[in-house]
## 1
Amino acid sequence: SDETESKRDIMQKKTMEHPCYNCGAHKYARIHLPVAPACNVQCNYCVRKFDCQNESRPGVTSKILTPMEALERYRLVKEKMPNLTVAGIAGPGDALANWEEVSETFRLIRKYDPEVTFCLSTNGLMLPMHAKEIAELGISHVTVTLNAVDPHISGQIYKYIRFMGQSYEEDAAGAIMVSNQLAGIRMLVESHIIVKINIVTIRGINEMHIPEIVRTVKDLGCYITNIMQLIPVEGSTFERLEPIPLKRIQEIRKECETIMPQMYHCQHCRADAVGTLDKDQSIDLGGAVNPVKE
Ligand code: SF4
Ligand code: SF4
């Protein structure tokens, strides 16, 4: 229909101006708003005193903002940075585990700026429950971290997950994660949302499984995959796992490029990053934390 066509055109324009989805969009800036402190899972590579390891390097935890403070930061930055095209929520925990704050933040910013592109990143556990609202809020780009499509492999990546008031571990955790992630991704694609998949490559666990993940998400209609290196964090279950060399990561990406487009320029930005991807900018936010990447 015409409506679907024009929706697709808008999505395409937004994607062209999104620095994370288009290498040629480096002149555009994005802001991450740290309004999501809680997480509903415990990844074995994560230490919760840092930002979500799905998107961010181990560093300092972002200072949490309320939705009103996030709007204030957005306005300040937008005034100084007219090339700001994207507002995203990437933690420091999981966006969907803090849905009230996250949806309120997007509503407030949309009222102020009808043009801005919205994105969020999530571990995918709660996607089926929120996919409809994500579409209704006009969030056009979603990143899901999907480290396995096999429940047994997935179960080795989480120490536990918390779902509907219960904790699950091992294969049970993996089964819930994988089915919710895949069902949620399918719902997003049906709503014409552009989906990027982050995959953390973990030695001895999912290293050989990556092409299968990529084939699965290609079939689901995802836009790009971002195959990342695991950077072991002290204090995490996987702290002693040796990272897979970048050379090998590049080989895996090359192999997967025959299946679907690969992302090569993700900076693993902090949950409070501001600016273009080339250069995170330090802006005086009047007493707010300095949103500079370490
Ligand atoms: Fe950490 Fe992110 Fe995993 Fe939550 S989803 S445990 S914040 S890496
Ligand atoms: Fe873009 Fe990657 Fe930074 Fe997210 S973490 S804003 S995808 S470069």
Note: Residues 2-275 form a domain with the TIM Barrel fold (CATH 3.20.20.70).
## 2
Amino acid sequence: MGFQSEEPAKPVHVICTGVEPGRQDPYLPGSHYFPKLKDDPMSKDSAPLALIIEDEPAQMALMSYNLKQGGFKLAEAVTGEEGLLLAEELLPDIIVLDWMLPEVSGIEICRQLKKHSHTKEIPIIMLTARGEEADRIRGLDTGADDYMTKPYSINELIARTRSILRRTRPSSVGETMSYAGLVLDSEQHRVTRNDEPLKLGPTEFRLLSALIEKPTRVWSRDLLLDRVWGRDFDVDTRTVDVHIGRLRKVLHQKGQPDPIRTVRGFGYSLDVEG
Ligand code: CA
């Protein structure tokens, strides 16, 4: 074995926003197009981010094209390790994970994603060529949220992706959510309380979107930071307190009860009972 001077080819990361009709697709195969996703906190609202982990280029291209058409932003990884890194870094709304990957298998990647506190809540759809019942059960045992056997229908994949998101991240698919007289319409970007419109800043809107997706759930400041500002944002957990204060002030108007519960030393929840 001689001295190897060349580094192995780097996997290409591609992130694209959904392609609007009549506009050119920003994705060029092989390019290192990497928009500043996390520099723009608003991008969290605009479209759900799907991470595809798949080593077969044809499969990747098919999924990527169709998910973009379906209104998703995309991140792509061609190995499991790269997928783990991107999942940690970008905290996608959903992961489509191929079982058969070189080196580390999809099952192992799934296990690791479900083990880490930051990534464990990201829903995962496993893809596989294996159709045996035992494998299906093994896949779901590792924490995958859904399972599809190749060859699968791309429309079905998109339908299942959206149906999972409707449950886990309703705001990302434009669902309207309500709790205790509060209604948040993520498509229209509108919030009302007992039919009275409320004026919220963009950060307060995202905070409320997170809280209202899982009423009564207690969110740590760190989790809210990740969710609302993104992981790359250099903000202090005290920033969360400041914006919660602003949100609370708006929600609290006109003698309405305060729907935000402070869990001292930990975080917050949307909870009128607490
Ligand atoms: Ca594969």
Note: The two ends are 67 Å apart (CA to CA).
## 3
Amino acid sequence: MKAGCKPAPQLYCPAPQPRQRRTFFFEPAVVNLNSSPIDKTHLKKPAHSLRPPPPWRGEIRSVLISRARLARRVHTLARQIEKDFAGRDLVIIALLNGTVMFLADLLRGVSLPLRLDFIGVSSYREGAGAGGLIFTKALRLGVRGRDVLLVDDILDTGRTLTRVLAKLRPLQPRRIKICVLLDKPARRVEKVAADYVGFTIPDEFVVGYGLDYGEKYRNLPFVGLLAPGIAQDVTP
Ligand code: XMP
């Protein structure tokens, strides 16, 4: 330094701080969307924005999948299905009752001359625990030589879809593809996979957007988690 020059003033330089970890409701790695383009909006949602709307706060602990995310994803699924089944003789078979909202939104986005039918499946036990299956409504349309898209609300243990597939295969459709809104792979006991999945979810009992607990909560416009004390025999 030349004589007479002042040393440069020391600038305040704080020690580097460790980066704050943002609070997410669930780990991004757990909830993974099975499509491209990947919807990453859930990665940006802090926990407080996932509170259910006031009328549901007593019974619903939190919103797992918001109405907006459902709409975006269902729209994407519909476009994919429309592309994959263009020119085919398509029969959509939906399982009652859980598909009601998903199906209505999905169908509006599939502009193909398809046929629609339903199979009624119900668990013996009311509530959420595992039980035997009974068929409450049989298929009426013929599917022989046709493309079938089987639609269900959630693929959990896989028992329901395995039983339904066993009924459909002898009817000799050209092919059967499976579309589910939710996939919960952690509880799978049967070897069954879906071709179209809305959202892969963690091992939690979910309600809303058609899914029920004791026949309640189907009318929620979002998918949510039950508040503690509401569910008596929810598995897990
Ligand atoms: P499986 O275990 O046979 O399940 O793959 C399929 C059916 O079980 C019901 N299920 C649920 N319903 N929240 C619900 O409201 C859940 O988390 C859940 N897990 C399974 C549902 O009826 C589905 O079609």
Note: The first strand starts at residue 60 and ends at 65.
